[in-house]
Amino acid sequence: MLKIALVGVGTVGAAVADILRENKSVITARAGKEIRVVKGIVKNPNRKRDGVDFPLSADYKEATDDPQIDAVVELMGGVEHAYEVVKAALKNKKAVVTANKALLAYRRYELEELANGVPFMYEASVAGGIPIVRALRDGLGANHIESIRGVINGTCNYMLTRMFEKRVSFDRALKEAQELGYAEADPTFDVGGFDAAHKLLILASLAYGIDAKPEDMLIEGIGHLTDEDIAFAEEFGYTIKSLAIAKKRGDKVSLRVHPSFVSRKDMIAKVDGVMNGVSMIGDMSGETFYYGAGAGGRATASSAVADLIAIARGETSPMLGFRRANERQLSVARKDEIESKYYIRVLVEDVAGVLAQTAAILASRDISIETVLQRKKRVKKEWANLLLSTHKAREVDLIAALKEIGALAFVKSPPVMLRIES
Amino acid sequence: MLKIALVGVGTVGAAVADILRENKSVITARAGKEIRVVKGIVKNPNRKRDGVDFPLSADYKEATDDPQIDAVVELMGGVEHAYEVVKAALKNKKAVVTANKALLAYRRYELEELANGVPFMYEASVAGGIPIVRALRDGLGANHIESIRGVINGTCNYMLTRMFEKRVSFDRALKEAQELGYAEADPTFDVGGFDAAHKLLILASLAYGIDAKPEDMLIEGIGHLTDEDIAFAEEFGYTIKSLAIAKKRGDKVSLRVHPSFVSRKDMIAKVDGVMNGVSMIGDMSGETFYYGAGAGGRATASSAVADLIAIARGETSPMLGFRRANERQLSVARKDEIESKYYIRVLVEDVAGVLAQTAAILASRDISIETVLQRKKRVKKEWANLLLSTHKAREVDLIAALKEIGALAFVKSPPVMLRIES
């Protein structure tokens, strides 16, 4: 028998206990032994909880220091206290399973060292019920990963789907997401791209062996998107997704989260609502794509239990996918070391010479225009939105050009830019 | 170092050697040791081959009986001889990697017994570069798998995509597939559904622990599809895919391969051309979906090398996903124990009472009609195609009704039926 303690018995913790109870026979057959919850650690052990048939305690040491316990499942969230708990468990050679992406985003290499061969698993930390950690750590191990592109924040994706399908505003979409329980009262962590950044860092370690922190990344939220951007995207065969992107060029890996124009033909464009999807291109496998529920108690717990089964079987894959350092060390690209196609929105006074001057500035920086659209503002008729898409350009050049364009007399507010993934 | 022998150095075998050479540094870092091809077994060792930097022999015993060799990679195909080779390797405690779906379709449980804990891996046998075996064996281990639906034959899918997108005929689509190298000179194995059936049996073992043979399955090819079927599908929001389906109801699992109407909103409907896609619904995970290249030397070899990395790391997952028999034994449903929605095409003389009599026969068997369409034949104007879709019905009832309908005086050829997946 594999005896486990749940540290945190909220939605996911309770679902882990449910799954182990409801699917006991098939899990035992797959794992080769029963997996049983023998203890739960919670803030208030006296509160009555449904479906809890194991003893509760408020002291995490009753999990990490109890000799009968084989594995600790950390489901509290947060970085510092979770680190303390997990460290204590590893010190006592107990296997660890976690769904805690923030912990991994900040401390995964320290944890790898502490684990030192004791199983440390975290399938549930990225993309809920999709076994994406295994796909990258095991299934694509023969490949250099050329790129990862993920829709891995359900809140953003729900909102963008609503903004596209029903043309609701950002504020309305956010309110809906909050009412449905998809967004927190303070939505910054999801809508600002930080949640996706944490998850991407985990995938980037598995793909590239790269130690980076959220601070090293370009992270942009979806708060500045407007009706015009969505109409432009639709007109030219795109949708807009908040993408977490890792791209390898030579020995540099660019890591970023931002809203992106994506061709509607792309599999990643077909991920709608709260679902998650990840596309990964390997140099040998070509593109593979993974789709499923990115959140929800049962889907997330399904992944945590898969980790427990692996531990019961005697898991031997290295925690972060590498048994030793790769000879060819990769490093993180600077935030502005990006080349992309771009979409630009400029609010202008509708006078002669607007397009000519804008185009001249772009041309002077070697940025060539692909399409142009000008739309009069409905309310203020003497103003218009100038919408452009460019061919591939260097981001440093684009930013410089936008600064120049923003300073032109007829430009009414700072130009807005979005990247086009192709 | 993990020393391997390739038994079979064709497209996939050569690609395995290429990948191990080209991606040596990253593979060594992930596996913890170098993986090196030290021998190849081929029919004619004297033929000159590009990129072969290891000794060749015609005698498989030089692979299976050589004490320096740790793992044998079987890439010959076929059942009997491959079984002999693999058996010899396992007897000498050598790990085995294979891409041979026919071998597994017929002999997987014997092989599991022979292996008896020696690693036996076959990621490359289903869906090429998509790590679908791992997803099912490891990632979804906490779940009862409610259904598997796979587009896992690239030849059929290429042809169906062409028939839909360009309205080319079956014969034309087949000729194109043959010219592009996607179909064999004798296409029966692919187009008849047998290749997909072999792959489905492997997935069904991982999901359900079920020992079945191709003979136990309902297998239908795509050869009887016509323009009318495709037009009807388009009109009502469907596409047609050759699906490999496993569905659990109670303790029975239905296993089948046949062309199916699929809603265009379904992820599986978005798998076009030679690509593969598999949707799996777990009782806890919900739907997860996997997409990628289902064939091609490098994609298939990418999966075989992933297996070698796992072996180098000390793989401990059970070959067919179960460490011991599940208490709740499942069994294969009879071929006609199907409930589905159906599409029916009947060629009729265009006279009064045709629809009334057809509808009466269906009603007498409790089959209710969802939509009806009648299309005059262009060439023979006094004939028409009567196209129907039904609500959910029992297949035994439907088959009986079609037999009765086929016997009506105004019916000009045996009615054709396709299942609608919903």
Strand content of chain A: 25-35%
What fold name stands as the CATH topology of the largest domain in chain A? Answer: Dihydrodipicolinate Reductase, domain 2
CATH superfamily descriptor of the largest domain in chain A: Dihydrodipicolinate Reductase, domain 2
What is the total domain count of chain A? Answer: 3
Proportion in helices of chain A: 25-40%
Distance between the termini of chain A: 50 Å
Give the radius of gyration of chain A. Answer: 24 Å
The top level CATH class name of the largest domain in chain A: Alpha Beta
Spans of chain A of at least 5 consecutive residues whose pLDDT stays below 50 are none
- What does the overall shape of chain A look like? elongated
Mean pLDDT of chain A: 96
Structure report:
The structure is a homodimer of 422-residue chains. The first copy, chain A, is an alpha/beta fold. The first copy, chain A, has 14 helices and 18 strands. In chain A, the strands form two sheets. In chain A, strands 7, 8, 9, 10, 11, 12, 13, 14, 15, 16, 17 and 18 form a twelve-stranded mixed sheet that branches. In chain A, β4 (71-74), α4 and β5 (95-98) form a beta-alpha-beta unit. In chain A, α13 runs antiparallel to α14 (395-406). Chain A is elongated and about 80 Å long. The model of chain A has no long low-confidence stretch (mean pLDDT 96). At the A-B interface, α2, α6, β12 and α12 of A face α2, α6, β12 and α12 of B.
